[in-house]
Specification:
The complex is a heterodimer of chains A (174) and B (424). With 174 residues, chain A is α/β, with parallel strands linked by helices. Chain A has seven helices and seven strands. Chain B has a five-stranded parallel β-sheet with strand order 4-3-2-5-6. Chain B has a five-stranded parallel β-sheet with strand order 16-15-14-17-18, with helices on one face. In chain B, strands 10-9-8-11 form a four-stranded parallel β-sheet. Classes of the chains: A alpha/beta (174), B alpha/beta (424).
Chain lengths: 174, 424
């Protein structure tokens, strides 16, 4: 299934919202919102830790976290909600593994960057996924990030698992 | 130089059709067993499945469970359950269970998870089934869409941490106290991306239900999953269900373990995790007896038959304190039936417990029994993230069934062995 080529991933650039370690899915999307549809969920992302957050996000913004970002439940509405709120990428020292997978599957870039703590709220970062680089615009500082293995990059490059599967099944039929 | 493989590596190698695999390789593997539930399953993946225009890969390898929204108490929840039922019918899923119990409990109780399997399910506590000696990997909804349409998933080959627990747990000290102690020591990201393999004389002496508390809470240490190598206890559990299984793979003597964590079971004390962080773990003896208004016995972690029996040991001949609401949501129908047949349920009810439906209940903040602002609760569940079980302004301690029952009786958190030492 790894015969699908990675599309050229454009540079992601956005303003930073900074959070700490162990940001869990219960604060990203509290369980009570899981009954609701995505537009409603998007209005409440991060309510558990920063009420009113969604209203302040501009499309393209980037979240920066510490270690174990997205720990807790497997709810895919956590990355989907952040994406629908306008977040274009999440940079963190490390990710909870299911959250990382969910990001890939919904087409939201998860960027593992050991030095994410050097990025401050309000700064603008540009992310080169293919090269594994994060650049802080204000300071010009370049940080190393983990480049995605091609097997995983293929899914993100397709825009997520649904598109990836659609291409696979279309290939099987032809 | 060739080195031996861990149990996890062996299962992955077999599922990838390879002789051997190395940590950090990214591979596609064949899945032996998949599970999804009402919250993460059909409601999320059916539209995409229709768009893809494909059938499920193997209906006999898929388990479907309604546990998160059971019983429905609003129209949206009722529709989620109806979608799940319709999916089971449309795709011919025979292993479909509604209101029979929590999925993770059923995977073990019904013998679906077996030694050596590659098991993938769309829930973070999928790791529970690692108690059967399988590789049990939790994923999200779209990942499970991939699994149920192709029978495959990708994974990164993990390192394994060996958790060596020797000695004997003292009376009144449980697997819950042990795993909370480990999580307190290592932190909620202490096992990130790795597999925890539980071995040692203390593990061998445990029942399947107690062992499953250890694997269940591997999610709370950030691990990829937890596993207990199958032994005679595992095989006897399956044999009692009429399933003839072999013990399955074990780690080679020369396998590489990234770390070994050693624990002496004899010195483990009753502990609780303090509100908002399940790795903020302290011995009850050093806690200073905080008052509680709610005691909750529920979830795949802490409401199996043996958990109910532990609570009953404390509650027999005692009553719940004024100002405390003790709620019990059995993890499965089977757990409740067993508790009804031997007087356990009677002891809970006589003490004043409020019996709730079997299912995930209040644990994910979805079902009955959630907490209001200002409430202070102690619970046998696995997580206490802010707002997890209701209001962000509620406080939630996590402890063993003994500790929850003792707090219900005393009105404050107390060492159950101390309480049981005093006259009823």
């Amino acid at each position: 299934m790894s015969d699908i080529q990675i599309k050229t991933t454009p540079l992601i650039e956005g303003r930073v919202w900074a959070f700490g370690d162990n940001i869990d899915t219960d604060v990203i999307v509290p369980g009570k919102y899981l009954l609701h549809d995505l537009p409603e969920i998007a209005k409440h992302v991060m309510d558990g830790i920063r009420p009113g957050f969604a209203a302040e996000v501009t499309a393209g913004d980037v979240i920066v976290g510490g270690s174990n970002f997205g720990t807790g439940s497997s709810r895919e509405m956590a990355p989907r909600g952040l994406q629908a709120a306008g977040i274009s990428a999440i940079i963190a020292t490390s990710f909870a593994r299911i959250f990382f997978r969910n990001c890939i599957n919904v087409g939201l870039a998860p960027v593992e960057c050991a030095e994410s703590g050097l990025i401050e709220e309000g700064q603008t970062v540009s992310i080169d996924l293919a090269a594994g680089k994060v650049t802080i615009r204000e300071t010009g500082r370049e940080l190393d990030a983990v480049a995605l293995p091609p097997e995983i990059g293929a899914i993100l490059g397709a825009g997520g698992m649904e598109n990836y599967l659609a291409a696979k099944f279309a290939g099987d039929r032809s | 130089m060739s080195m031996g493989m861990t149990l996890a590596q062996k299962i992955i190698a077999r599922a990838a059709g390879r002789e051997s695999v190395e940590p950090d390789e990214v591979l596609w593997v064949d899945v032996d067993l998949a599970m999804m539930h009402d919250s993460s399953g059909p409601r999320r993946i059916w539209p995409a499945l229709e768009k893809l225009g494909v059938d499920v890969w193997d209906r006999d390898k898929i388990v479907l469970v309604c546990d998160h929204y059971v019983p429905a108490n609003n129209l949206a929840a009722a529709e989620i359950l109806q979608t799940t039922r319709n999916f089971a019918t449309a795709f011919g899923i025979e292993r479909f269970h509604e209101a029979q119990g929590i999925a993770h409990t059923l995977m073990v109780e019904k013998g679906y998870a077996q030694p050596g399997m590659m098991y993938v399910a769309s829930d973070s506590h999928t790791c529970t089934a690692g108690v059967m000696g399988c590789l049990a990997l939790g994923v999200g909804s779209t990942d499970i869409l991939g699994v149920v349409t192709t029978g495959q998933t990708w994974l990164r080959v993990p390192h394994t941490i060996r958790v060596q627990v020797d000695g004997e747990l003292r009376p009144g000290v449980t697997a819950k106290d042990l795993i909370l102690t480990i999580i307190g020591d290592k932190g909620m990201d202490g096992g990130l991306y790795q597999v925890l393999e539980f071995v040692g004389t203390a593990i061998e002496a445990m029942s399947i239900q107690e062992r499953s508390v250890l694997t269940n809470m591997c999610a709370e240490i950030g691990a990829k999953t937890g596993v207990v190598p199958a032994d005679h206890v595992t095989i006897e559990h399956l044999a009692a269900l009429g399933i003839d299984a072999s013990e399955g793979p074990t780690s080679d003597p020369d396998a590489f373990f990234a770390q070994t964590w050693r624990y002496d079971a004899n010195v483990i004390e009753p502990v609780v995790a303090r509100p908002n962080r399940h790795d903020d773990v302290v011995p009850i003896s050093s806690l200073g007896r905080p008052a509680v208004t709610r005691a909750y016995i529920g979830s795949c972690t802490g409401a199996k038959y043996e958990d109910l029996a532990m609570a009953a040991e404390v509650l027999r001949g005692r009553t719940v304190a004024d100002g405390v609401l003790l709620q019990v949501a059995p993890a499965s129908r089977e757990a409740l039936q067993q508790a009804m047949s031997d007087g356990t349920a009677q002891a809970l009810m006589d003490a004043g417990a409020h019996l709730l439906s079997t299912g995930c209940g209040a644990c994910p903040g979805i079902g009955a029994g959630i907490l209001a602002a200002g409430e202070v609760a102690i619970s046998t569940t696995n997580r206490n993230f802010r707002g997890r079980m209701g209001s962000p302004e509620s406080s939630l301690y996590l402890g063993s069934p003994y500790s929850v029952a003792a707090a219900a009786v005393a009105g404050h958190i107390v060492d159950a062995t101390e309480l049981m030492g005093s006259p009823t």
